[in-house]
Amino acid sequence: MNFLRFAVRRLLEMAATLFVASFVVFGAMYLAPGSPAGFLLSGRSASPAALQAINEQYHLDDPFPVRYLRWLGQVLHGDFGRSLTYRTDVSRLLADRLPVTLTLVAMALLIVVVLGLALGWIGAVRGGAADSAVLVSTMVAVGTPSFVAAVLLQGLFAVRLGWFPSGGAGQGFADTVWHLTLPAVALALYLVGLLARVTRSAMLDELGSEHVAVARARGVPERRVIVRHVFRNALGTVLTTGGLVVSTLLVCTVLVESAFSVGGLGQLLELATTTKDFPTVQAVALIVVALFMAVNLLVDLVHPLVDPRVVLGARRSAA
Length: 319
Hints:
- It contains 14 helices and no strands.
- By secondary structure, it is mainly alpha-helical.
- The chain has two domains: 2-76, no CATH class; 98-318, MetI-like fold (Orthogonal Bundle), CATH 1.10.3720.
């Protein structure tokens, strides 16, 4: 019952936050210099009648609250408007490009989780030279921005060695994985270092705790101590970084997709921002915000299941 109330409350909070985010997303583009009419005219001079026709077609002369409420009503019905750049429905653009971005993020997240947890485990448990190697490698990873990693990986493995394609998203499962391997590694590199350091720190804290000393004194096998008493308890701390990890992946896709010409939401957002394609920018930004909030909600719901010491809603009440 507590879980149900907590879930309902978080869903209501998510809906309220999305409403505020939609207002910010819709209004932010109108603060930038330029206008959609200027882009549609491509710098050409136009008569007042032609300019008025464009403004009427896209409702650019309507008061801001009217434009926002009209747009919000359309969004609630799944209609994000019509792209000024592609001259097609934004919903169709999203349907074509969203799977590519989600696949890229999923591949990068898999790399982050597997390598981040493994390196953190090795550094905390083995210590010595292994721990030093983990600290050095994670320091390099954390200090390498995604766009730098993209350029280096593309130059070495795509251009020089020819092991992977230099761009595109591929077709079919195997071809898509092959095309997205380098972008996924570039996207994941920084977060692998971050998660490894968080995991290592959390496990070291647990290794020095009293309950671990008691378990060892009772003769519990070391492997069981590490898995059940150290890693399991440290996993709650690691899980709290889940929202940060996914949000960073979603933001950095803009740079990585552009570098590899992947053709996902990130590249679409970059082009739409450059061309003042208001409907497309607003739709992509709102979807990214919604995905980020959904991940945070999932983390909040899963955290008490992973770490029984956490009470539902305690994180928020403590904040």
